[in-house]
Amino acid sequence: MIMNRKLPLYGTALLSVVMSMSSCGDDKPQGPTEPDSIKRCVLLYAVASNNLYENLLSDKDEILEAARDMDLTGLSMMVYQVTRNDSARLLQLRRGRDGVCEFISVKSYDKDIYSTDPRRISAVIEDVRALTNANNYGLIFWSHGTGIDPSFSTHDTRSDRDEMVFSETRHSFYSFGSDNNPEKDKGYYDEIDIDELADAIPDGVFDFIWFDACYMSGIETAYELRDKCDTFVAYPTEVYTPGMPYNLTIPYILKETPDLKSAASEFFTYYSDHPSSSYRVATIAVMDMTKIEIVAEYCNRAYSGFSKAPSSSGLQTYSRGKFGPFYDFGQYTRRVMEMNPTDMTSEDFERLMDEFVIYKSATDYDFNGRPISADNYSGVSCFRFSESDSSEKAQYYHTLDWYKRVYPKVELE
């Protein structure tokens, strides 16, 4: 099996209260008869109108397997899915009177708007909130992913990015999604860049966001989402096609108070102890987003004398093929401090990183067969900023909040 998969995100939340269900063709979602009874709702937002469709089917089966033995009282799970040959639909996990768990369609959406369009993401989130009125929400994004690698999408974007002029050539990168609609454009795959995705998610709604997708554990990605969740879970490298083992992680995720570190540990152990040695590759990190601004302030001061980017030689790389390259954020920052001395200490930085990254694991080797140094593994990647880089990707990087927050004002040559 090829490791070119960008993890599926299966959010998993189950619902045990009696629901007024609508047919899949209804325009308006129907709410629960006891809206105040839902303590936790998890939304899995799955863009599977690509080569990951079969994986979504497997992941939904894993969710049902986990739900079978769980007490779902006060818990709700919603799955938004889009596939190539079906309408985009919002599903709800429900246990029937016979005790069997199943997914019931509660709303369908037209495909005139891509599922990677900020308008669709925002609309689905609002529908889920209206349907469940839960006390707490979690969000899992499931699809392809390439971190901050831009697709230069044609969606409405931030004003500073609108003023930028990119080439009309579509890049082969995708940040998140890769939505295909044969009825609109058979050969076109739509993606959403991380800044657009952040704008599509309301502030203060989700207490956690988990990217079951490749390359999304980057400091720039996390910083864009700093107001969107309290805890952020993602992988700095690729992830194998099976993605998250939902049958093992859902019991920890779909709880009134999720245990995300235990869920991350289950994910990592699934791969590190896999019966097939070819699957024993995985990375993951869990971040306490209440600490990210402190890290940003430290980097702003540590990078204050930035005049030259560290060489990529010897930096731990989390990339393969055309994606990235991304480098280890912790190691990169230490190199910047060595080359551009300030009064900031590496000991302070390590302490802050220990408070920010509350769980991290990595196998001994990455998808390229290269060793992963435990001493240089922070669980978080970063872009290697260079003042001499005038590429379109570097121009895009200048629009991201992390760049604006931590780097001195260095003009591109």
Structure description:
By secondary structure, the chain is of the alpha/beta class. The protein is 29% helix and 19% strand. The chain has 13 helices and 14 strands. The strands form 3 sheets. The chain has a 9-stranded mixed β-sheet with strand order 4-3-2-1-5-9-10-11-13, sandwiched between helices. Helix 9 (292-302) runs antiparallel to helix 11. The longest helix has 16 residues, at 53-68. Residues 1-35 and 157-174 have low confidence and may be disordered.
Number of strands: 14
Topology order in helix (H) and strand (E) letters? EHEEEHEEHEHEHEHEHHEHEHHEEHH
Shape: globular
Q: In CATH's first tier, which class of the largest domain applies?
A: Alpha Beta
Strand order of the largest sheet: 4-3-2-1-5-9-10-11-13
Q: Strand percentage, roughly?
A: 15-25%
Question: In percent, how helical is the residue content?
Answer: 25-40%
CATH topology of the largest domain: Rossmann fold
Question: Terminal Cα separation, in Å?
Answer: 43 Å
The total tally of domains equals: 2
What class, by secondary structure content? alpha/beta
**Would you identify the regions where 5 or more consecutive residues have pLDDT less than 50?**
1-35, 157-174
Largest sheet: 9 strands, mixed
Tell me, rounded to a whole number, the average pLDDT: 83
- Report the total helices: 13
Secondary structure elements and pairings:
Blueprint: E1 40-47, H1 53-68, E2 75-82, E3 88-95, E4 101-109, H2 118-132, E5 136-142, E6 144-145, H3 159-162, E7 176-180, H4 182-185, E8 189-192, H5 194-200, E9 206-212, H6 219-224, E10 231-234, H7 246-253, H8 260-272, E11 283-288, H9 292-302, E12 327-328, H10 329-339, H11 346-356, E13 357-362, E14 381-382, H12 392-397, H13 401-406
Parallel strand pairs: 1-2, 1-5, 5-9, 9-10
Antiparallel strand pairs: 2-3, 3-4, 6-7, 7-8, 10-11, 11-13, 12-14
